[in-house]
Each structure stands twice: as structure tokens, then as C-alpha cells.
Design brief:
By secondary structure, the protein is α/β, with parallel strands linked by helices. The protein has six helices and eight strands; from the N terminus they run αβαββαβαβαβββα.
Length: 214
């Protein structure tokens, strides 16, 4: 994000806010985690591949899309590289499902596409760690659910501004500062011209596993 907390301009431009070194840091996180997760809005707007490309891990990662209305196009670049694609949806069977299945996606229907159900299903698929890349509504859903244990932010030395420019967290947010999610300890490092901030939720891993596993 930019120094003033924007992940895109008011017109939707977002490539590239972070520096090449910052983007490599983010790509390295895909190598460290079993799965990379985004929402359908990110797929439609940015058309990412979400793949591993640094050669630091053996085999492809699992690419995950939260797509309640099944908006992921069969022409998405997700399907141009090898590796499993899992799409979680609330939509009924139809032509959109058939088209995605033909492209090799695993389309999973849930009563509600929300973090706990998605993580539980991924765990049973052998996924032990998930990198949640975004966008803002997906990130907000994980923060609101408490089903996360670490946050990493690449902060670029840019000022974008604009009331309509998006920030990294959507959703309703926390109503009071007392209820806001606090992270510790906060660590800072440089990646090229960017500042990378990371913080963990101490002692929460056991709680997360207890909530996700039956």
C-alpha cells in the first residue's frame, strides 16, 4: 500500500505501488505457504496468476478464490499455469460452473463462503498454511473472524490520496478502538525503497486450529 494507506488510486490503478524488491518479498511468501487466497474481485480486476515463480519451493501452490456469485471468468490467467485452483462459491450449478470445471478448477459449494468453512475444507485437502493476499473485503473478513496469525504490509513511499481510493481493509470495521485488532510485536525492514511491516498475533495459533478443525 502507499504511505497514506491506499491500495489503488480512485480510478482503480494499482500496478505498481510497491517496488520490485517489495513485490519479490510478496512473491516469496507464496513459496512459504501451501495456498494463496484472493477474492473474485481481485481476479476480475487484476487477473493475477497467483503462482509460485521464484523457484524456492517444490511444486505449485494451491490457488484459492472466494467467489460467492461465481464471477471468475474461464479465461482468467489462473488457468494458464500448472497447479490446483479451488473456487469456493454459494452459487448453484450452471453454465458458469461447467465452464470452470472444464478449465480444471475444483468448484466447492458452501452454505456461506466465510473464513472458517474455507480453512476447514483446505485443511482436509492437506493445506496447512494460507497466504491471504486480498482484496480489501477478503482481508477484512479474515480480520473480523480472528482466523489469522500474522500480518505483513509493504508500505511504499507514495502519497495517493482521494476519498474514493481504496484502503487495504474493507468491511464494516471495528466500532471502537478498544475492540480493534492489535498486533505485536511490530517489526520493520526495508525492501528496496519500501518499508515492510510485520506483526503477529501472539498465542492465537492454538485457538485458530481449535476453531477450524472439527
Amino acid at each position: 500500500m502507499s504511505l497514506d494507506g491506499r491500495i489503488a488510486t480512485a480510478t482503480g490503478e494499482s500496478q505498481w505501488i510497491s517496488s520490485p524488491a517489495g513485490r519479490r518479498w510478496a512473491l516469496a511468501l507464496r513459496e512459504e505457504n501451501d495456498a494463496t487466497l484472493v477474492g473474485s474481485g481481485t481476479v476480475v480486476a487484476d487477473d493475477p496468476r497467483l503462482d509460485r515463480r521464484l523457484g524456492l519451493a517444490a511444486g505449485p501452490n494451491v490457488r484459492v478464490v472466494l467467489d460467492r456469485r461465481l464471477r471468475t471468468p474461464p479465461t482468467a490467467r489462473l488457468f494458464t499455469v500448472a497447479g490446483p485452483v479451488v473456487i469456493y462459491t454459494e452459487a448453484a450449478d450452471g453454465p458458469a460452473t461447467a465452464a470452470l470445471l472444464e478449465r480444471g478448477a475444483d468448484v466447492v459449494r458452501l452454505p456461506r463462503v466465510e473464513p472458517q468453512a474455507v480453512l476447514a475444507d483446505l485443511f482436509h485437502r492437506g493445506v496447512k498454511s494460507v497466504l491471504v493476499e486480498g482484496g480489501g473485503e477478503v482481508l477484512a473478513s479474515f480480520v473480523a473472524s480472528g482466523l489469522y496469525d500474522q500480518v505483513g504490509v509493504d508500505c511504499a513511499p507514495l502519497l495517493i490520496g482521494g476519498q474514493a481510493a481504496r484502503g487495504p481493509l474493507g468491511g464494516a470495521g471495528f466500532p471502537t478502538l478498544a475492540s480493534a485488532a492489535r498486533l505485536e510485536p511490530l517489526r520493520a525492514a526495508r525492501q528496496g525503497g519500501d518499508l515492510v511491516l510485520t506483526a503477529a498475533r501472539q498465542g492465537r495459533l492454538a485457538e485458530i486450529l481449535a476453531r477450524v478443525l472439527p
